Amino acid sequence: MTADATPARMRMPARHVRPWSRVYGLGSIYAKTMRDSRLSFIVMAGLLGGVMFVVGAAIPQVFASSSAREDIVRMAHDLGSVAAGVAGKPVNVGTLGGYISWKYGPVFLIIASLWSILALSSTLAGEAQRGSLEFVAVSPFGKRRIAFEKLAAHLTVMTLVLVIMAFAGWLTAALFGKLPEDAIPPQAAVGFALWIGLVALVFGGLALVLSPFIGRGPAAGIAGAALFAGWILNGYAATVPAFRIPADLTPWAWTNNHVPLGGEYDWGSLAFTAVIAIVLLAVGLEAFVRRDLGASMSIRTPNTPRALRGLGGPLSRSFSERLPVAISWAIGLGIFGLAMAGASRSLADSFGNSPDLQKTFDTIFPNFNVATAGGLLQLLISLAFIVVGFAASTLVSGWASDESSGRLEMLLSTPLARSRWAISSGLGVYGAIVVMTVIMAVAIGIGAMSAGSDAITPMVGTTTLGLYAAALAGVGFAVGGWRTSVAAESVALLVVVMYLIDLIVPALQLPDWIHQLALTAHLGQPMVGVWDPAGVVACIALAAGGLLIGGWGMRSRDVAR
Amino acid sequence: MVAIIETEKLTKSYGSHRGIVDVDLVVEQGEVFGFLGPNGAGKTTTIRVLLDLIRPTSGKASVFGIETTVDPVAIHRRIGYLPGEFTLYDRMTGGDTLEYFANLRGGVDLAYQASLIERFDLDPSRKFKEYSKGNKQKVGLVAALQHKPDLLVLDEPTAGLDPLVQQTFFAVLREAVGEGRTVFLSSHVLSEAEKSCDRVAIIREGRIVMVDRVDALRDLAAHQVELRFVGPVQAAEFEKIPGVTGVVAEDHVLRMHVTGPIAPVVKAAARFELADFVSREPSLEETFLAQYSEPAR
Which 3-state string (H, E, C) describes A63-126? Predict the structure, then answer.
């Protein structure tokens, strides 16, 4: 007697998948990835398209005359090497497109590249590490098709975002351009978008290649480091010849002569960049196919010194957990502060030699004396408040993660009162902010010394950045006492609102009381030694009061899971 | 006996969602108390109220005679807790995690901690994020046990553990109980509750439907009885006995379900020439399923 071991093939009822669902929705892996990308599409289209449009609208208004444009050209060429290194290549900076490319080109490229790095490092490896990819991988598709559909979705979303950015560039020049040379032809807009997209894909592709081997986080970290290292190396290669060779290995250098918004094209370099991007994406896709799902080599890192492991209690644990994030922000802000402090004197001299330009800036920023190094540094550092605010938001997010990730339940089953957890771990966040502030202060001090300016005053003035971050964190703790899941978001929202008040109220000449609502309006000008005691007291009160309110709020509510 | 856990009409509602309703429980010192129920029945909600992680809507709960909302820290000082789902610090090693939790408790007996690590076969040098699900569970178990708490509150403690480690876990539990400590164990794995618990409570849709000793609960379900006779027997003789249902006659064999005392069936069978008598005890699982097959009150 024999038995038929082949199972009967079940006839499943056919389910019709609508064509649109295969493009966007739940009808295919591509469609699901597109659906998952909707928030990043909105954010990136808003950032790249929105910034392009707003900047394009503002520049012709601020620099309306031919003489103002000539001043800009002079300033761009007279810029100290420290500041010039972080700007784009100055090509026809007296035109709208040239100015955008020079001042904001690297910013556009960094934003798009970070997006691509995060998306491509997490789309496969991140999902594999979480385990959700295993459900997809056992569906009747090959791994190559899964990877290809996910990659195709990212490329589609990126293309859409770049089309919007290119259109915004062309449109803003057509609507707001004051001088004939302000026009941005479609060829230039497309060339700029292609540059952004292809370079971003090189760095994203690098993350995609590395992620199956070393995991999502390290891959994103290495690709991000390559992005910023390339920017710095290429920017300062003229000043430091030793940077030339490593800089030439990055797309920053390959595409150095492609400045389409300034009227300079290098399509060959773009084609080379495209080939490298395609190779990296193909290798990354193949690596995912050939590697074990979710397997990655662990990179051995040096053991954290015992004193920094944070095992003593909630304060030291919170400090230890937040420290890497605080140091990362401090390094970014420190580089910015170093460059700004280093450039402040030469920029101030440029303003001093150009009464028209100084008059323009006096109109926009009436409270800043841009003809002095300290006054200009104060103006430039004001931009750091928004970044410091977001740093505070991420630190509060980390603080809140004890509850949002489910750890708090175990912590509170020890003899640790809720309010003690909230206050001690909040103090740990303040400790991390202190470290962040000290690193920024040192960087700004070095920059100021390199420019031959007074270093002590701006270093002490950096304290306001720390106070502002602590005040915002205090607000976050107070909100967290009610609900930690919205604490970080509340801080971020507050940062944006205060930044907008700072930006819009003087420009639109709205009543001063509106401006006074922003905490940033009460922080004086500490970079030139002018302190506002009311602002300092307000920051300390918000930091201390917020922490106490958070501790009190935690006492009387349910702990979330 | 001393009551370690006591709840009185304990109720927790989440807006329109049901949590637990009028839960009355008493857990005594030195016992392993099983808290059984399917997913979403209210097991974890009850535990979280007992630990003051969430506050009751009405009613009250006391642990060690202390009301949970009055001095939770005093309660926490004497308990060990393993949540059903938890995450810890990804970048910390298992050893550092255990040290941190030991420090939060003011220190532990390091020799006992080391013995638990060894018995659970845990590698404490690896980072938490690198552990498998089972090893993460081991870290949680050691964190809950290492300070020798008077009360262990364990929510699905064997989830992810292999059978050998499960054996070790139950051995550790027996030792704890042997030392006079108390265990409150939530589970839906009925076989483990059956072999480890002294008493169990069954919770259904937020309400306690039954609390009793494991063996008493078994009596509530029908025994499956098989009587083999030498000659033919009238099934009607047995159908009229109270508690007997589902009598099936097949040649000289009678099969039936018996709920309650079995003595009347034995007496009736003795009136005939009996060749064999087989009675199978119901498992806790059968009791549990019997409870759940009835409509909710």
Answer: CCCHHHHHHHHHHHHHCCHHHHCCCCCCCCCCCHHHHHHHHHHHHHHHHHHHHHHHHHHHHHHH
* Cα separation, A97 vs A91, whole angstroms: 9
**In chain B, what residues touch A309 (CB-CB under 8 Å)?**
92, 96
A413–B100: do the CB atoms touch at under 8 Å?
A: no
Q: In this structure, what CATH number is given to the domain that contains residue B138?
A: 3.40.50.300
DSSP 8-state symbol, A128: H
Owning domain of residue B272 = 222-281
Using CB atoms, which residue from B76, B86, B103 is nearest to A311? B103
Is the Cβ pair A558, B53 closer than 8 Å? yes
- CATH code at B248? 3.30.70
Are A415 and B106 within 8 A, CB to CB? Answer: yes
The reply to whether B168 and B270 lie within a common domain is no
B197 and B147 inside one domain = yes
Task: For residue B288, tell me if it sits in a domain.
Answer: no
Chain B positions touching A317 (Cβ under 8 A) are 89, 100
Q: What is the ipTM of this complex?
A: 0.76
- Residue in chain B nearest A304 by alpha carbon: B92
Domain residues for the domain of A544 are 315-561
Q: Do B171 and B118 belong to one domain?
A: yes
Does a structural domain hold residue A369? Answer: yes
**CB nearest to B88's CB, from A312, A313, A407:** A407
pLDDT band at A437 (very low <50, low <70, confident <90, very high): very high
Q: Is A259 helix (H, G, I), strand (E, B) or coil?
A: strand
Nearest to A412 among B53, B100, B103 (CB): B53
Determine, yes or no, domain membership for B233: yes
A522/A471 Cα distance (integer angstroms): 13
- pLDDT tens digit sequence for A181-207: 899 999 999 999 999 999 999 999 999
Domain presence at residue B56: yes
Q: Is residue B118 part of a domain?
A: yes
A250 neighbors A276 (Cβ within 8 angstroms):
no
- Is there a contact between B101 and A414 if contact means CB atoms under 8 Å apart? yes
CB contact under 8 A, B105 and A417: no
